[in-house]
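can u pls check wat happens w/ HDD
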Amino acid sequence: MVKKATPAPAKGLGKSAPKTSSDPRGDGDELHQQAGGKHEPLTTNEGGIISDNQNSLKVGERGPVLLEDFVLREKITHFDHERIPERIVHARGSAAHGFFELTRSLKKHTSASILTEVGEKTPVFVRFSTVAGGAGSVDTPRDVRGFAVKFYTREGNWDLVGNNIPVFFIQDAIKFPDLVHAVKMEPDRGFPQAATAHDTFWDFISLTPESIHMIMWAMSDRTIPRSLRMMEGFGVHTFRLVNAEGKSTFVKFHWRPKLGLQSTVWDEAVKLAGADPDFHRRDLFEAIQGGNHPEWELGVQLFTEEEAERFPFDHLDATKLIPEELVPLKVIGRMVLDRWPDNFFAETEQVAFCPSHIVPGIDFSNDPLLQGRLFSYLDTQLSRLGSPNFAQLPINAPKCPFANHQRDGHMQRDVPKGRVAYEPSSLQADSPREDAKRGFRTFPAREEGARSRIRPESFADHYSQARLFFRSQTAFEQAHMASALVFELSKVETPHVREAVVGHLRHVDEALARRVADGLALDSLPPAPAAKVPPVDMPPSPALQIIGKMKKTLEGRVVGILVSDGSDGAAVNKVRKAAEAAGAVVKIVAPKLGGAKLSDGKKLAADGQLAGTPSIVFDAVAVVLSADGAGELENESAAIDFMRDAFGHLKAMVVDAGGRRLLEAAGVKPDDGVFASSAIDAFVNGAKTRFFAREAKVRMLA
Ligand code: HDD
């Protein structure tokens, strides 16, 4: 209990005396007695102990508040300034600490210790984000996901600030503000939030053919991931590695999730936004807290300047990828996220990623998108975090020794000693100096040419890779893309914008354009715009699929068991054991949060109450109900939705007699993804995947 030093005059509204500041409500300080624990004294920011944190300082019991109340003013002032500007893009994010471990040395290609010292564990901080929505928006809109990694290496911080998609919308950073203004809420009406499905976005896209490849990715299920733990990550740009002899090799970075790729279906993503706006954040939190530490492999594609010259596209163009069939991926390390941040604001919010944070042995390329980013991030951190000293914040500071002569500024935390704040100097033997041997050296690439604002001819093919991506997908994925395009364009009010987008699609795939045109009920197929470079067919790349990269596993997945009073405890246990043995987390859902009284009289605690825990939040469901329980739930829409949605979202289900009754009430006709309670092993096996063939029965896809 907090001890208060000096009794103050009686105050409070209650009529029954006596009241003092150590007993503000005259109730024997019940509030604090109930809260329990051993507490440090509460103080002001200056360290003064606060005697009363419940009442402001007033004249008389019911009189005005005094300006003199420095405790009140300090508390409110600090509160008023608690928010900092949110990121203009990627405002909504979730992050975790972990480590990177190199498993294969790239010594031949780079001098960077993080890429040469096999077995060394480098601390990392990783922030995942959506792009368009504000900090308080939901986790599951259709959107690209940011995948930003800060490596605290022995040679300084290296930030690999990527996305879950290997290409980007635009080729030149000068277009970034236009792209972002087009995708954000429309400025006159202030909506839609966190969505691309509106006129300004598609207007910009229809006039920016270089974006069409990225659009194919954005309309695929990559932008509705099941979990942040089941996404790939990409550095996007071509970077350079430089070895000890000064020789350079180009490199693309890829993160591959150990749990494989997995996405939701669109209807599920939409419903998740309501069922659990924090679905991805909670999923990452629960996995890390539960000891299921998410893991990724780091892969690289390495190629020389000469090889790059022979590619049928420009490696400096961020709207292009390098097919893995052309340059295979070499796995060189792994990253594990094993610690949730202690404080969301201090770490996840204040972390400042800058692609310009690089270490010796890694260098930039001339990609004009990357070059613009090298300026933008440092600039944005200055206004977002309010001071050039943001690098001193614990989450941003390097973990290797660092020293320089930069001084002062807002919120300076350091107290530098000595007379010398310049270099060279002879007055202070320990003042920091440049180190030509160990320091970063830019690769001396030779550049020449006239100054101009020109887009290279080698960037002009906007459709071949869009076509490659679409044609590399399974039929299910192609149907999802067509439906996503129809959904997005049906939210566009301006007919000529819809038509212009369909026109572009004709260069990607004539059949896709027809499906979308049909989905929008266009009278005729709009003309395709003139293409500077007509698309060419490239061999399909299965590495671009999601379904092809799904892992048949229950690891990292969650199985929900719906029970009622009178459910058979042995049957519940059987499912639980089998699912847990396969690596899943199991959660119990009951009509009441207190749980259910099983047939053997034992109480089974629930992890969630039915109305607030729909099947949408699970990867597969089991339904174990007593006859009475099934009878009651037949009239409960949350139970009917539980069944319908699990089926509609292509999930494996296992049902006993009660569950089957509920299925019938929901109008669901079981298929081979619905298992009887005698077939638990088959259910567990089925739960490792989704039943895509079912989809044609449950919704009309474009
Ligand atoms: Fe960016 C944030 C990824 C192009 C300007 N970007 C930001 C974040 C990610 C990316 C993951 C969030 C970092 C975090 O979690 O704090 N951005 C990308 C990728 C791009 C890209 C993969 C293309 C390959 N970005 C890009 C361009 C510009 C910016 C071309 C400007 C010229 N990006 C920003 C920014 C942000 C940002 C405005 C907002 C908040 C921040 O930087 O720290 O400066």
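The two ends are 65 Å apart (CA to CA).
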